[in-house]
Specification:
- The chain starts with 10 loop residues before the first helix and ends in a 6-residue tail after the last strand.
- Strands 2-3-1-4 form a four-stranded antiparallel β-sheet.
- By secondary structure, it is of the alpha+beta class.
- The chain has one domain (about 25-130): Alpha-Beta Plaits, CATH 3.30.70.100.
- The chain has four helices and four strands, in the order αβαββααβ.
């Protein structure tokens, strides 16, 4: 299994994701890897860690998620690995519930998201976003 973190999806990956079937609420699993130090293009806030820069984004994106009827279900630090093997563990896991793919897309493309995206980019080395469907499985 190949695992490759990214900060932004490739255009074809985004088109495939957003062009998928609308099937109601879903939970996005976010596996986050932070930069050691924040990297803002203008050199500001160089004293911040990547996690601190991302926390600025997280505080604001939580409001956006809740504003569209979603909810941050969980967030926490990764502290160990029991099963499997990865080259480098993620730093944090967050679970965000969205009411629909359309709501998620509207948030992702909103001016409010564009206004906070620089904090995400400054702090994030890469991540995996995994869309899950509640109630499916065991």
């Amino acid at each position: 299994m190949k695992v490759e973190n990214a900060v932004f999806p490739q255009p074809e990956q985004a088109m495939s994701f957003f062009g998928g079937t609308e099937d109601g609420p879903f939970v996005m699993v976010n596996l986050l890897k932070f930069k050691a130090k924040a990297e803002y293009p203008d050199g500001s806030d160089a004293d911040l860690s990547g996690a601190e820069a991302y926390a600025r984004y997280g505080a604001e994106v939580s409001k956006l998620v809740e504003g569209l009827g979603g909810k941050i279900r969980y967030s926490g630090a990764v502290t160990g690995l029991l099963l499997g093997e990865v080259e480098d563990l993620w730093d944090m896991v967050a679970l965000a519930e969205y009411p629909s793919l359309a709501a998620f897309r509207a948030m992702a493309l909103s001016p409010e998201m564009q206004a906070i995206e620089h904090h995400r980019k400054a702090g994030l080395a890469g991540q995996l976003n995994i869309r899950t469907k509640p109630g499916v499985g065991f």
